[in-house]
C-alpha cells in the first residue's frame, strides 16, 4: 500500500481516463503528477446567477431571464457570418438581444417564450451580446463555472473533466497539513473539501470559503519558512551582546540639536534591544525621505562605540558617502568619535594610513561605498554594519562586509517606503522598523499637476525661483527620442531650456549613459550651485542632499509609479525655503489620472506606497519581477493582506513554541520545513 502522501505524486496517467497523448499536452503545461493536476486552479469563474438589470454593470457579463417581445431578425453579412436580433422584456425593461453566428436560434424563438441569456451587457444601448441562450427558465443552473488556462487539444471543458476524474479517483488521498486547532480557530473547511470546491463550487459562498482556506494555508507555509529562517539565522549566528551604559546613550541623545520624534524613539528602543541581545541584529529600517534615519544610525553607532566596537556605514555612491560622513561627523565627533570616509577617491598614502588606523582600531566609524569591501580593508573589532538603500547592493556585497567582523549586527536602511504587506513578504526573515513620522518644522512640499499646455508658466516659475537664489530639477523619463513613446527626453529638454533661458542660467544634464565619475561631477556642480537647473533622468532618485533646490518638475509624470514620483519629490524640501513639485502630464488612462490626484493629495510615502501597490500589483512595485517576491498560486498579498498578517502571527507563534518541534500534530508542517532546506541552512545567503 502506497503512503497516502506519495499517491498524489504518481504520474497523471495513473488517473483512469488520461492517456499518453493528453499526458503529453499536460506536461507542456507543467502538469506531470496527480497533485499538480489538482493544483491547476481556475484563473476565473463564469457567473451564471440571474442578475437584476438595475444591478447589471456596463461591459460586464450577466445572466438575465425575460420574454421574447419581437420577431427575431436574421441578417447575413458573409456566407458564414450572421447576426440575429430580437427584443426581450426583462422585468419592466425592453432589451435588445444580439446573437452572432447562431442562425439556428431563429426557429427556436417564439413570441412570449421565456429565455435565459448570458452575455456582455451594454448599459448605454440596453443591449446584451448573447454567448449562451437557453429557451425556457433553466432548472438547477450552476451559479458558477470554473475557467482554466489550457493548451493544445485540452479544452476548458476537457480540463474540468480531467480534474473531476482525478478528484473522483484520488480525492481521498489529499492530506490536511493544518492542525485541527487552526481549522477550528478560523472555521476553515478541510483541505479535501476546499480543493473540491475550488474546482466545482456549488455557490459563491462555497467558493469563498474554499479560497479563504487555501490562501491561509499558502500564506502560513510561506511564513513558516520565513519565521524558521529568522529563528535559524538568529540561533546559528550568535551575535555580540553589546554592553554599554544607558545613561551615556541618553546623554548623547539629549545633546542632539533637535528632539527625537516618537517614531525615532520607538525605533531606537528596538535597535538597542537588538544590540544588547546575544543574537545578531538583522533589521530593516524604513523611513521616508527626511524622516531622520541618519540620526538613528548615529545613535546605533554611538552605542556600538560605547561597547568598544567599530561601526561601518555602506552607501551606493561617493557623493552620498561624503554627505553621510559630514552628517555623522557633526553628531559624533563632539563625543570623541573618529569618523572617516573611504571611497575609491581615497588613494595612495591617505588610503594606506586610513587602513592601518582602521585595522588598529583607531578609527571608530567608517563611511564608504563598495570600497569598504575590498580585500585589504580590515577592522580591529567590527560590531555593526549599516547599509543605506540596501536594494542597491547585491547579497554578495552585503555578505562580504558582514564577514569583515565576527557576526556584527546588521541594519539595512531604505528611504523607499515599502507597504507593510510587501515588507513582511519580501523581507519576512528580517525584523522591520518603521519611522512613520516627520520631524517638526519641516515644510510640506506643495505639489501641483499641470498639463503640457501650461509649460510656459512652469518655466517662468522656475526662473522666479532661480532668480531668488534657489535651484531646480527637471526630470524626464527617457534619455533620447524614442519612436515608440511620445515622451519628453532629457537631451531634448536640455536643448529646449538652454534655448528658452538664452544663457541666463547654467543648465546641467545628467542621465544613465554617463559614467559614474561624470554623474558624480554633475551632482557636485549642482550641490555647489554651479548648475542652476539640472535636467536629468531618474538617476537623481536616491539620497543626494541639495538643500538649495526648491523646484522639482517631472515631465510625463504619469509614466512613473507613485513610489518613484515620491522619491523624486523628496529631492527638494531639504532646506528652510518652501519647495514645490510640479507634475507635467496628460494621462489618457484612469489609473494615470488617479496617480496624479493621489500625488497632489498626500505627502505620506507609506500611504502612497499602499496606493501604488493597489494600482500596480506586487510584481511591478520594485520595478522588476526579480525582486525576490514570491509567486503565490491563489493568494494576493494586496487583497488578502489580513490573511497574510494572521498567517505571519501564527507562523511566528508556532516556530517559537516547543510543541511545534515535538508534537505529532505538527509533523506535516515540520516535514515541509525540512524539505525546503531551511532547517539545514541551505537557504541562507
Structure explained in plain terms:
The chain has 25 helices and 21 strands. By secondary structure, it is α/β, with parallel strands linked by helices. It has 5 domains: 75 residues, DNA polymerase, domain 1, CATH 1.10.150; 87 residues, Beta Barrel (OB fold (Dihydrolipoamide Acetyltransferase, E2P)); 103 residues, no CATH class; 190 residues, P-loop containing nucleotide triphosphate hydrolases (Rossmann fold, 3-Layer(aba) Sandwich); 157 residues, Rossmann fold (3-Layer(aba) Sandwich), CATH 3.40.50.300. The strands form 4 sheets. The chain has a 7-stranded parallel β-sheet, sandwiched between helices. It is globular, with a radius of gyration of 31 Å. About 1% of the residues have low confidence. Its EC number is 5.6.2.4. It catalyses: ATP + H2O = ADP + phosphate + H(+); Couples ATP hydrolysis with the unwinding of duplex DNA by translocating in the 3'-5' direction. Belongs to the helicase family. RecG subfamily.
Amino acid at each position: 500500500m502506497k503512503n497516502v502522501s506519495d499517491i498524489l505524486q504518481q504520474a497523471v496517467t495513473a488517473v483512469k481516463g488520461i492517456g499518453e497523448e493528453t499526458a503529453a499536452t499536460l506536461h507542456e503545461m507543467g502538469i506531470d503528477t496527480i497533485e499538480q493536476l489538482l493544483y491547476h486552479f481556475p484563473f476565473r469563474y463564469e457567473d451564471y446567477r440571474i442578475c437584476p438589470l438595475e444591478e447589471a454593470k456596463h461591459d460586464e457579463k450577466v445572466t438575465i431571464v425575460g420574454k421574447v417581445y419581437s420577431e427575431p431578425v436574421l441578417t447575413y453579412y458573409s456566407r458564414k457570418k450572421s447576426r440575429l436580433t430580437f427584443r426581450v422584456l426583462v422585468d419592466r425593461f425592453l432589451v435588445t438581444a444580439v446573437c452572432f453566428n447562431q442562425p439556428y436560434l431563429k426557429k427556436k424563438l417564439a413570441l412570449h417564450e421565456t429565455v435565459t441569456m448570458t452575455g456582455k451587457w451594454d448599459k448605454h444601448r440596453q443591449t446584451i451580446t448573447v454567448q449562451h441562450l437557453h429557451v425556457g427558465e433553466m432548472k438547477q443552473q450552476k451559479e458558477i463555472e470554473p475557467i482554466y488556462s489550457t493548451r493544445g487539444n485540452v479544452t476548458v471543458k476537457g480540463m474540468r473533466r480531467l480534474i473531476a476524474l482525478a478528484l473522483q479517483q484520488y480525492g481521498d488521498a489529499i492530506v490536511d497539513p493544518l492542525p485541527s486547532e487552526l481549522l477550528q480557530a478560523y472555521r476553515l473547511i478541510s483541505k479535501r473539501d476546499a480543493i473540491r470546491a475550488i474546482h466545482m463550487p456549488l455557490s459563491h459562498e462555497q467558493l469563498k470559503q474554499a479560497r479563504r482556506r487555501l490562501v491561509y494555508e499558502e500564506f502560513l507555509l510561506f511564513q513558516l519558512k520565513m519565521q524558521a529562517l529568522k529563528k535559524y539565522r538568529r540561533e546559528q549566528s550568535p551575535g555580540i551582546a553589546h554592553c554599554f551604559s544607558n545613561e551615556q546613550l541618553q546623554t548623547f541623545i539629549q545633546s542632539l540639536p533637535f528632539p527625537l520624534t516618537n517614531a525615532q524613539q520607538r525605533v531606537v528602543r528596538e535597535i538597542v534591544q537588538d544590540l544588547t541581545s546575544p543574537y545578531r541584529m538583522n533589521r530593516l529600517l524604513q523611513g521616508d525621505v527626511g524622516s531622520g534615519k541618519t540620526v538613528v544610525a548615529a545613535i546605533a553607532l554611538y552605542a556600538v562605540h560605547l561597547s568598544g566596537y567599530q561601526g561601518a556605514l555602506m552607501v551606493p555612491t561617493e557623493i552620498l558617502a561624503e554627505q553621510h560622513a559630514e552628517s555623522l561627523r557633526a553628531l559624533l565627533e563632539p563625543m570623541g568619535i573618529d569618523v572617516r570616509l573611504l571611497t575609491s577617491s581615497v588613494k595612495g598614502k591617505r588610503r594606506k594610513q586610513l587602513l592601518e588606523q582602521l585595522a588598529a582600531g583607531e578609527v571608530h566609524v567608517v563611511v564608504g561605498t563598495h570600497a569598504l569591501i575590498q580585500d585589504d580593508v580590515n577592522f580591529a573589532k567590527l560590531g555593526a554594519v549599516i547599509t543605506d538603500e540596501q536594494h542597491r547592493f547585491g547579497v554578495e556585497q552585503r555578505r562580504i562586509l558582514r564577514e569583515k567582523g565576527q557576526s556584527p549586527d546588521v541594519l539595512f536602511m531604505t528611504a523607499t517606503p515599502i507597504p507593510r504587506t510587501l515588507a513582511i513578504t519580501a523581507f519576512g526573515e528580517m525584523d522591520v522598523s518603521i519611522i512613520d513620522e516627520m520631524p517638526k518644522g519641516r515644510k510640506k512640499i506643495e505639489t501641483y499637476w499641470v498639463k503640457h499646455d501650461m509649460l510656459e508658466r512652469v518655466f517662468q516659475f522656475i526662473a522666479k525661483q532661480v532668480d531668488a537664489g534657489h535651484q531646480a530639477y527637471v526630470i524626464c523619463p527617457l534619455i533620447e527620442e524614442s519612436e515608440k513613446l511620445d515622451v519628453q527626453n532629457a537631451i531634448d529638454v536640455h536643448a529646449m531650456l538652454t534655448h528658452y533661458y538664452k544663457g541666463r542660467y547654467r543648465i546641467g544634464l545628467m542621465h544613465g549613459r554617463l559614467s559614474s565619475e561624470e554623474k558624480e561631477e554633475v551632482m557636485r556642480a549642482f550641490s555647489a550651485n554651479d548648475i542652476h537647473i539640472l535636467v536629468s533622468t531618474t538617476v537623481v532618485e536616491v539620497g543626494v542632499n541639495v538643500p538649495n533646490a526648491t523646484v522639482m518638475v517631472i515631465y510625463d509624470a504619469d509614466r512613473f509609479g507613485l513610489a518613484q514620483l515620491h522619491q523624486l519629490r523628496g529631492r527638494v524640501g531639504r532646506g528652510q525655503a518652501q519647495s514645490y513639485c510640479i507634475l507635467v502630464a496628460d494621462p489618457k488612462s484612469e489609473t494615470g489620472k488617479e496617480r496624479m490626484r493621489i500625488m497632489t493629495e498626500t505627502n505620506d510615502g507609506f500611504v502612497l506606497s499602499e496606493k501604488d501597490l493597489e494600482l500596480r500589483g506586487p510584481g511591478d512595485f520594485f520595478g522588476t519581477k526579480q525582486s525576490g517576491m514570491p509567486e503565490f498560486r491563489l493568494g494576493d498579498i494586496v487583497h488578502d493582506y489580513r490573511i497574510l498578517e494572521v498567517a505571519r502571527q501564527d507562523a511566528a507563534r508556532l516556530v517559537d513554541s516547543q510543541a511545534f518541534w515535538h508534537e505529532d500534530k505538527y509533523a506535516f508542517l515540520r516535514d515541509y520545513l525540512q524539505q525546503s532546506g531551511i532547517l539545514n541552512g541551505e537557504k541562507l545567503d
